[in-house]
Amino acid sequence: MKTREYKIIQDPVNGPVKISGDIQKIIDSSEFQRLRYIRALGLCNLVFPGANHSRFEHSLGTMHLASLFSEALDLEEKELVMVAALLHDIGHPPLSHSNEGIFDEMTGLDHLQAGLAMIEGKGLFSDSSLPGILESIGIKPSDVVSVLLNRRTDQRVLSRLISGPMDVDELDYMRRDSLYCGVQIGNVDHRRILNVALVHNNDIMVEEKGLGTMESVLIARILMYGTVYFHKTSRIAQIMTGYVINENRDLFQNPFKMDDNDLFHILKGLRDNRIAQSLLKRELFKPIFKLPYSPDLWERIKEALQTNNRLGQYDYIIDVIPPLDFSGPGRIKSDLSVLTPNGIMNITEVSPLVRALRETLENKTIIISAPAWSLEEVRKTVEKVNV
Predict the structure, then answer these.
(1) Over residues 359-373, mean pLDDT
(2) d(CA 41, CA 229)
């Protein structure tokens, strides 16, 4: 990077964050400024009123932690990993992850793919200012993309630092989400992790003495999923929003250039859409049933609701918490390596606690919800199935 001047941004989570002149150029871009208006937790603020923090501040925090870890691990390409950390969420659509699946169906892009296209100025983002800015500060857009995709062996450590079992993305968002949601369970000690992390065999791992620290991170992660990320009410609001988006896809031509304000402007304009208006008034679908998940019961309830000609497809919600696609060690990031006197071992091999924690997310629950206008019909339909 070329310029040496810098400024300080006060972050309520990480304290003073040092911003160089080159980093400031990226922050000042219209693509990055859009993140100011995208809530990190979507509609979780309907449950946790303080959860109005943005992808903008999370991205700054992630970049700051990338800087700290780069120094602690003595990484040579500190500037590159900082830029990759800063831009890792640049492609998020309105309300972040909430309805990313629908936007993926509409555009063929998820937030990572959209972000990569912005960074390289390709496809729907040929007008992006980011490639020119990156080149002007001595960073190749293709190198940023390679780090974010874990594409190159010689940059594997950089990639794992941003997205891995012990990454700066999660270390920022868990602490930030915990603060703004008013819960303490995600407030992990990143300084302790700095002290036990090391680079070995082209990967980031921990020494055996750091096992307790990483167990505490995994406990915090599991508790945050159960308490915040998969809260049934915010899931209901998320799915209701998805119903409205699905009915009005023509109003979302390029969601990756939109923000939350654009989405709520659309909702306000749909005066005849009762789900949109219910969302604006926080008149959410009410949970009626909470049932232990089994594939058979799930299919029978879905079939009963879908074949009831007195119910439309948007007259109920049938959800599974944790979601069906949320499983495996990669999802809870238990694929961490531990350096022991007996060699490198997976954390599940040396920690019974982590093995038990991983199993907790395999216990799933079916939640059936409905609005006032169809509540009784949904109740009767499901009761017949669940006799």
Answers:
(1) 89
(2) 8
Pick from 59, 34, 30: nearest CA to 129: 30
Per-residue HEC secondary structure of 76-123 comes to CCHHHHHHHHHCCCCCCCCCCCCCHHHHHHHHCCCHHHHHHHHHHCCH
Q: Which long-range contacts (CB under 8 A, 24 or more apart) does 133-137 make?
A: 133/25, 133/26, 133/29, 134/26, 134/83, 136/25, 137/1, 137/2, 137/3, 137/22, 137/25, 137/26
Q: Does position 107 have pLDDT exceeding 70, yes or no? A: yes
Asked whether the whole model's pTM tops 0.85, one would answer yes
pLDDT digits (tens, 9 = 90+) for 274-329: 999 999 999 999 999 999 999 999 999 999 999 999 999 999 999 999 888 776 55
What is the pLDDT averaged over residues 38-48?
A: 97
Superfamily for domain range 6-182: Hypothetical protein af1432 (1.10.3210.10)
The CA-atom distances, in angstroms, between 117 and each of 120, 256, 353 are: 5, 11, 40
Tokens of residue 101, six digits: 């699946």
The C-alpha atoms of residue 277 and residue 219 are separated, in whole angstroms, by 38
- How far apart CA 165 and CA 328 sit, in angstroms, is 13
pLDDT, the chain, mean: 92
pLDDT digits (tens, 9 = 90+) for 322-365: 888 776 555 666 678 888 888 888 888 888 887 777 777 778 99
Domain spans in the chain, listed from the N-terminal domain onward: 6-182
pLDDT digits (tens, 9 = 90+) for 86-101: 999 999 999 999 999 9
Q: Check if the beta carbon of residue 225 is closer than 8 Å to that of residue 322.
A: yes
**Nearest to 66, CA basis, from 84, 45, 90:** 84
